[in-house]
Amino acid sequence: MQSTFPRLLLRHAQQRPGAPALREKEYGIWQTLRWRDLAALVEQLACGLQRAGLARGEHLVVIGANRPRLYAAMLAAQSLGAIAVPLYQDAAAAECVFPLTHAEVRFAVVEDQEQLDKLLEIRSDCPLLARIWYDDPRGLRHYGEPGVAALDDLQAEGAQALQPGWFAQQVEATQPGDVAAMFFTSGTTGRPKGVVHTHASLLDRAEAGAEFDRLTTREEVLAYLPPAWIGQNIFSYAQWLACGYVVNCPEDGSTVMIDLKEVGPTYYFAPPRVFEALLTSVTIRMEDAGALKRTMFRACMALARRVGPALRDGQAVGALDRLKYAIGDWLVYGPLRNNLGFSRVRVAYTAGEAIGPDLFSFYRSIGINLKQLYGSTETAVFVCLQPDDAARADTVGLPIRGVEIRLADNGEVLVKSSGLLKGYYKNPEATAEVLTADGWYRTSDAGFLDASGHLKIIDRVKDVGRLAGGPHDGAMFAPKYVENKLKFFPHIKEAVAFGDGRDRVCAMLNIDFDAVGNWAERRNLPYAGYPDLAGKPEVYALMRECVEQVNADLAADAQLAGCQIHRFLVLHKELDADDGELTRTHKVRRGFIAEKYAPLVDALYAGRSEQFIETKVTFEDGRSGSVSATLRIDDAKVFPMLKEAA
Q1: What are the helix (H) ranges across 575-633?
Q2: Torsion of CA 160, 163, 164, 165, to 10 degrees
Q3: Among the four residues 2, 75, 147, 514, which has the most C-beta atoms within 10 Å?
Q4: What's the maximum distance between 2 C-alpha atoms anywhere in the chain?
Q5: pLDDT for the residue numbered 140
Q6: Which pLDDT tens digit goes with each residue over 330-342?
Q7: How many C-beta atoms surround the C-beta of residue 92 within 10 A?
Q8: CA 211: distance to chain centroid?
Q9: What are the pLDDT digits (tens) for 229-270?
Q10: What DSSP designation does 588 have?
């Protein structure tokens, strides 16, 4: 039976009034908000918003981290038939201008002083923005700007004006087919688009995912990723209301790892970069451990790699290996899961980018049920999921209930489900480009279904190109595939591959500063910051090893052997969303980078051994500046195509 977010809130408040709905860590102590108290808070905020003038069908922008009262503000808006529009809290002020003006936003709720300052800075560019409410009052005592007030004041105004039965009438007037939220795309290739979703589309996919993984009210979730990203929004908002489990909000971004261990989530979601960072920290700690601990860890991990995934998948394993694994679980795997905060995880998902097979196998081998999913903002996330006993690193799972998949002639994956977007806001042309007349969504991803029915994604359709000239003339070039293989190495944080229309493939790399820094320190290699470390000859040799290992793997693939990397360089700065090089979801903006670093691209293909570059950067405090360096360019060994691949 179709419902809406506010109706689900009231259902939980009526059926389970004293059960915890949200927890927030404040000053080191977890504070619990129960369903009945959350419903009362939402009711008061809804009345306050209506008195302020928020109308049905209007947009309410919400900017901040995962905070109970920001969730309540979104629910309050949806109770009135208004539309919640979460924006990224780490976006620069200028990036907020387009969403606010495009959606004709008059009202906004922000988390704290930082977000309020951001909106006040651009207020002259957003003439419709009349009222802004803030959640955290710290630092705002002397602010006197017109239209700015505390969320406490809005709640108090609503509480005074409440009439019996009014809120229930508002909730009932909101229908499942009404628009519930709008999410702006990351803008990888241009200006962001507002993806419009109804209560029905979001809840349909949330419920299908919950059914697939048998989620219950007993789940514990840690909400630490941006709520403006639909992945976090589905896990900690849509599925939270659909299932009624507990969402825990960390105190601060710097305390997430501590909070993860304290909460011990049962249902966990993170992009591959988070799992990579966790494994990198484990690797660093073990390299610094004593000889006995290192030996025990390596022996146990060798056993785990051999039998752990089979045990996780319920396959037959010999009695002796089971006994050895049980001992390893007592000595290493269990303490390691506990140290990572995964001791209670029943289901863990990763998505957004491909995850390395070694990384994927590591987590499953130590007893963590890590799986992959496939979806997008436009599909309300859940398209394909992996069953507990059929999780593989090279697929993204099976189509779940309510999903149909077919492949276009060019290999593009087409999706039909009840979770598809209603359209792009004020952009019928873009909507027509992705939605066919008979209701199929064009994902822009190239892939295929394997013999077991699992979907495999190769790359973005528009990014799959061809080499031109040279020994591999006409060969397929899949940049994202190559970049992901490079990023599987813990010492490489980002990679950008070039080759479409050229005779060979070249790449730019970012080192992982923590991992490579630890590697350098153990070799008594001094360095003074990121640029110095990235330019060290020893680091280039380390990067060359990684690149050549990728080349050896690619040589075994008949279709992608031409994608081997001939030349590479290590950038003198980290790619950054503030500099426009990454999206807010940390996806590489390849076209922008090619234009910004055109002298480096030209040098890679011109055969030069070094190239000077000066780059504009944005500092954390918002100031602009520039950094310059003369970068070394190295050649990498390429391998002949293996006979079996040919």
Answers
A1: 590-596, 598-606
A2: -130
A3: 75
A4: 79
A5: 93
A6: 999 999 999 999 9
A7: 16
A8: 22
A9: 999 999 999 999 999 999 999 998 889 989 999 999 999 999
A10: B
